[in-house]
Design a protein that fits this description.
By secondary structure, the protein is of the alpha+beta class. It is built from seven helices and 19 strands. Strands 1, 3, 4, 6, 9 and 11 form a six-stranded antiparallel sheet that branches. Strands 2, 5, 7, 8, 10 and 12 form a six-stranded antiparallel sheet that branches. Strands 14-13-17-18-19 form a five-stranded parallel sheet, sandwiched between helices. The chain is globular, with a radius of gyration of 22 Å. Keywords: Glycosidase, Hydrolase, Signal. This is Endoglucanase E.
Length: 367
């Protein structure tokens, strides 16, 4: 009994010592503190940690004290855009377990807005946010403004921002050059001042994934779209967490990029399953289906058949022109569109969204 009490006092002493050290070094907040607003699919643990891996997941808050760090664990290597007062402050690399990442420094101690955006996709790593650590005088405060619109994008490498930061089409892909913030999806959301979620994975299709040896792949975006995590098929997402106003689907490039191509019946079946799942979970919201720029097969009739067969007045089809962007100057790394290519896609899509949603066009710059 005495030995047990001694152990208990030692443990309490260690815990108090750690807490005092944390208080001395800075003000500590849990990952799920109410002042922090996450947008995207996340999983909160009993200890207050918040885990996620989908590309584009972001958190927003306000803070004082001039410094902010985050204690995280990472399964691989992820990259994040850090915005302070709406401007890019830095890009940070996240890796390791229980690692303290310094996000913001060198600014005044007044209140500032903060946005941390996962710019790389789940294939490269899942992040768990344990704590936010501020300076001794620092505090977190909830963002007062809440956006009233939400767009969900379901797609592949184009939605992820694969190679967007690359400088030349022959440049090999690196995780560092993936930047979802410069995609058509993020531009569309910014133009309409909308929250967004990106449910996207490079190389994935509706019926068939890039380079697969079979016409119909085992796991495609019709399956991944149901999950909390991109890379974990066991945790199913609770679709009651949020309901977007609009869903934009940009799939098909990978289905037909290499042979064997799925049959028309196989592709339309998979695509209609995606639409049915969206109807089941989100109800009667508009869905915009995009016919991609870089289709390797003349299958626009497949998309037309899908629209005719579902016979849903709130399912729309928009065909992007095959010559929409220049195959040299508008490309980033690995022959994927760069910033200018994505901007042209956004400029094509925005007016159509205005038509189907009744959202006014403004003089806001598309960027």
């Amino acid at each position: 009994m005495k030995r047990y009490c001694l152990y208990l006092f030692i443990l309490i002493g260690i815990s108090c010592s750690a807490e005092l050290k944390a208080q001395k070094n800075g003000t500590v907040y849990k990952g799920n503190d109410p002042a922090v607003r996450y947008t995207g699919r996340t999983l909160v643990s009993p200890d207050g940690s918040v885990a996620f891996d989908w590309v584009g997941t972001y958190l927003e808050t306000r803070f004082t004290g001039g410094k902010l760090s985050v204690k995280v664990s990472e399964t691989g290597t992820s990259y994040y855009n850090v915005f302070v007062d709406g401007k890019l402050h830095k890009v940070v690399k996240v890796c390791g377990t229980d690692t303290l990442i310094h996000l913001v420094s060198g600014i005044d101690k007044r209140i500032h807005s903060l946005k941390i955006q996962k710019r790389s996709e789940g294939e490269f790593g899942k992040t768990t946010v344990h704590q936010f650590v501020l300076s001794g005088s620092g505090r977190l405060a909830e963002e007062p403004a809440v956006r009233t619109r939400h767009i969900e994008f379901i797609g592949n490498s184009l939605t992820c921002g694969y190679g967007t930061d690359g400088k030349h089409r022959d440049e090999p892909f690196l995780v560092e050059t993936e930047n979802c913030n410069l995609t058509f999806a993020s531009m569309v959301a910014r133009y309409y001042d909308a929250d967004y979620t990106l449910i996207a994975h490079s190389g994935r299709g509706a019926a068939r994934n890039y380079g697969d040896s079979v016409r119909v792949s085992k796991v495609t975006m019709k399956d991944r779209m149901l999950n909390t995590f991109d890379e974990d098929l066991t945790h199913k997402w609770n679709f009651k967490e949020y309901r977007p106003d609009l869903v934009v689907i940009n799939l098909g490039s990978n289905d037909f990029s290499t042979e064997p191509h799925p049959y028309k019946s196989e592709f339309t079946k998979a695509y209609k399953q995606i639409l049915a799942q969206l109807r089941e979970h989100y109800g009667d919201i508009p869905i915009l289906c995009i016919y991609p720029v870089a289709m390797q097969a003349p299958v626009f009739s497949y998309y037309e058949a899908i629209i005719n067969e579902v016979n849903d007045p709130k399912v729309f089809l928009l065909k992007l022109d095959k010559n929409l962007y220049n195959r040299t100057t508008d490309l980033g790394a690995a022959w994927h569109p760069g910033y200018s290519g994505h901007k042209k896609m956004a400029m094509w899509i925005i007016p159509y969204i205005s038509t189907i949603m009744g959202w006014d066009l403004t003089d806001r710059v598309i960027e």
